[in-house]
Amino acid sequence: MENGGGNLEAQIELFLNVEKQMRQAGDVAGTRKAVTDILQLCFEAGAWKTLNEQIVLISKRRGQLKQAVQAMVQQSMQYIDQTPDLDTKIELIKTLNIVSAGKIYVEIERARLIKKLAKLKEEQGLVSEAADLMQEIAVETFGAMAKTEKIAFILEQVRLCLDRQDYVRAQILSRKISPRVFEADISKEKKKPKEGDNIVEEAPADVPSLLELKRIYYQLMIRYYSHSNDYLEICRCYKSIYEIPSVKEDAVQWTPVLRKICWFLVLSPHDPMQSSLLNATLEDKNLSEIPHFKSMLKQLVTMEVIQWTSLWNTFKDEFENEKNMLGGYLGEKAAEDLKLRVIEHNILVVAKYYSRITLKRLSDLLCLNIQETEKHLSDMVVSKALVAKIDRPMGVVCFQAAKDSNDILNSWSMNLEKLLDLVEKSCHQIHKEMMVHKAALRV
User: Tens digit of pLDDT for each residue in 329-351?
Assistant: First the structure.
């Protein structure tokens, strides 16, 4: 082995002299070949420690050419998967990471190295370390990196943050991706670069397609919004997944997604966005395939009081089945929120048909006691979903907005104008009748 080691060192020394001559002569191709030959020698001899030393040595040589460093990093990256053990693999990745740090011409290679290292850390159970490593790289600034690879890298950053429950950073990182990027026409993307344009590298084979990345993005956003129980945003994410052509064309894929859309629509608080999504979903032809859910959505659109007990009895089994899809930890909270949405719907229906109603009658309609009715009514008034006033001594709820003095005066003024218009029209009609009558008498 010693003879072999000495022989290896002699061969390396030989190539280093060649590399020096080529570098000083400014011969790019020659320098690159000498560098890659040195690495190949170390690799074939299985001298991993020597390989790491040579990588650092070559990169630090005076006036080293960019192309040589780039070729060296790219060559060494091919050896990573052929290392004999995990420690050797990590050591090689760390060496290449040190060499490529701060060099723009190998920034893409460095990003891929960090991704590999983070994956190894995650496999060892060190999720926080993996997340910290990934956050060092800002791929959105890399002009030469393929769009799909950039998105895949950022999504990996978001996933690791969610895995360690760092929701604030996950949100910041997710904002680096605009959802509009997924709507781009892929056929128009592959145009020939003009002269002077930056050459964009091809994405590696393991990077998913744009539509697959879209699905991954929205699944990660669902995980993020589930943390804060933001039902409407979760629903919009599922809606975006539902719009993916591969999903929409396959009933096996779109049926569970459409069911989730319906559930989260029902769980979402009433607002214009929710109302618009609700009506759009009701118009979807695919909804006819799951009539149970169509009838549930129709109940929410129809301005009629919903009996909570009958609704729950009808959909209890469905809800239990969906629990896993909603997320196990969401189960009980979602059941409470569903009841709350039904109460809110019923209060809005009552407010539409009544200007004044007794608290007792309102409680009967909502199937609640007076204290609960007051609480829910107050919450809706505070959230500005409703205008109402409770006269507690009288036990009466008034749903009319209180008008200020200017509004009252304006309405009086309008009424007087209408009255005077009517008087004027009447006078005109009487005068007309009299003229016609006089003309008839003359004849």
Answer: 455 677 788 888 888 888 888 88
Is 80 exceeded by the pLDDT of residue 328? no
CB 355 within 8 A of CB 398: yes
- Identify whether the C-beta of residue 133 lies closer than 8 Å to the C-beta of residue 142: no
Tokens for 418? 């209408």
Question: Which span out of 92-101, 126-135, 154-163, 326-335 was modeled with the highest average pLDDT?
Answer: 154-163
Region 279-291: mean pLDDT is 83
Q: What tokens appear for 37 in the block?
A: 């030959």
Give the 3-state secondary structure of residue 178.
coil
What are 358's strand-pairing partners? 396
Which residue is associated with the tokens 């009967």?
Answer: 364
Q: How far apart are CA 103 and CA 97, in angstroms?
A: 10
By CB neighbour count within 10 A (0-12 exposed, 13-18 middle, 19+ buried), where does 68 fall?
buried
Average pLDDT over residues 250-270: 84
Nearest to 145 by CA among 192, 106, 98, 186: 106
What are the strands, taking DSSP E only, across 135-269? none
Q: What pLDDT does 427 receive?
A: 93
Dihedral sign from CA coordinates of 205, 210, 212, 213: positive
**DSSP state for residue 208 in the 8-state scheme:** P
**Residue found by looking up tokens 């129809």 in the block:** 302
Q: Is 358 helix (H, G, I), strand (E, B) or coil?
A: strand
Tokens of 386: 């409703």
**Against a cut of 0.85, is the pTM above it?**
no
Q: Which residues pair with 356 in a beta bridge?
A: 398
Tell me the backbone φ, ψ of residue 391, rounded to 5 degrees: -95, 95
In this structure, are residues 173 and 158 in contact, taking their beta carbons and an 8 Å threshold? yes
User: What are the tens digits of pLDDT across the range 169-204?
Assistant: 888 888 888 888 887 655 455 555 444 445 666 767
Residue 241 in contact with residue 247, Cβ under 8 Å? yes
pLDDT at 437 over 70: yes
Torsion angle defined by CA atoms of residues 237, 240, 246 and 249, in that order, rounded to the nearest 10 degrees:
110
Q: What is the dihedral of CA 87, 90, 91, 92, to 10 degrees?
A: 120
Kindly give, in sequence order, each residue whose CB lies less than 8 Å from that of residue 218, ignoring residues fewer than 6 positions away.
237, 238, 240, 241
Residue 373, judged by CB atoms within 10 A of its CB (0-12, 13-18, 19+), counts as buried
Q: How far apart are CA 92 and CA 253, in angstroms?
A: 43
How far apart CA 220 and CA 202 sit, in angstroms, is 25
Residue at 21: amino acid letter: Q
DSSP letter string over 332-357?
HHHHHHHHHHHHHHHHHHHHHH-SEE
Distance CA 72, CA 36 (A): 6
